[in-house]
Amino acid sequence: MKHPVLPDLLALLDGSVSLQGEAVEVKDAARLRATIHRLAEVSALESGVRQGLARYLVRQVAQALGIYSASINELYLARGRGELPNDFTVPAMNLRALAFDSARAVFRAALKIDAAAIIFEIARSEMGYTDQRPAEYVTSVLAAAIAEGYTGPVFIQGDHFQVSAKRYAADPDAEVQAIKDLIDEALAAGFFNIDIDTSTLVDLDKPTVPEQQELNTSLSAMFAAYIRSREPQGVTVSIGGEIGEVGGQNSTPEELRGYMDGFNARLAVAAPGAVGISKISIQTGTSHGGVVLPDGSIAQVSVDFGTLRQLSEIARLEYGLGGAVQHGASTLPEAAFSKFAENEAVEVHLATNFQTMLFDRLPDDLRQEMYAFLDEKHAAERKPGVTAEQFYYKTRKYAVGPFKKQTWNMPAANKEAINQAWEAQFDRLFRLLGLAGTRKIVDQTVRKAAVKPDPKFYLGEAVEAGDVSDLAD
Asked: What pTM was estimated for this model as a whole?
């Protein structure tokens, strides 16, 4: 590929990489690891052609080093067939802020214990308020792998590709098309794991479970068929389904079976012979972000691990899935995390606590500037009786995107403190989730498919997130 901007971008890497056509040669891996942050910065903070080509170049360089976006589908289905142990739970981590830095901390923790069964994810809602579209997120994660010397498959996931019940009711065709457009964008960027969430459309007022789940199953099957028609050659995207809205009532075996039977029947019609989902998200007592008390602390919650184990077993033994997925676990006490593997959860989603660790360590003046922004732009969310601590805790995620540049350029001492805290947290979580030695399992099961990135995608028009205020994280 030739473009007048490419020599300038290559110069940022201090001669560590050469490009002939579309062929990348890494001439000095150590120098590349020391300079790749410059392309990650262009990707995160600039715009236009330089930004797009920086993202394209990072993906090409990553593949030259044996780092590639991958699907975890084969690993999960092997677990569903009983070919793998059920003694570890895959963490799916929503890296909302400083994704490059936080992903580096993830890779450092993983390398210490030879772990590879880890997922990096971002939800449809988060893409909006963090100003972080799929191509930027993939670039941050792959650049982090390069910087830390991590090689092999990297699992990047679209979390909560969620249908808005409000917008679906107003214009179902437009909302369905919005999800299809997001799927196309995500696949082009290198998201080969996608969680479809149409659980917002479950209608508990209907008399039977199959009727309650009907719209959920029909739409999720339609989206799954769409993914299968669009996924790159050689890749079987790992698709997740969801039966219960996080924060609502606990899921039941009847709901899981009602969803799965309806989904499988509809997928067989929409895409005969297509591979279905690999996991299913359930509700067991948690909520996204936790419940904030007036002093800003988080209320203790009790996860129904019995439900988690029972539904994981049904998912595996009756439907061949990897198991059940736990959402909203980030704010649980650390002692609870070993119980996910003990109760055979295939995956657990983590986000809010990483954001809390960031805000706790920001420079005071930057934090106050963010809070002043929230006071002005999100005052409507400050309901009577809500304390300042509750308000800022619930709304501070909306400051992540507008203050991306300031957080990227914060004093080195603050950023180092954040990075160290993140790494220590990942060290603990990975140990509790049983991830040590999972590199071997990943190597045994995951199909390598180095998908060639399309330069036209990276040079296309920027995509707007739209209104995401009513979507889950």
From this structure: 0.94
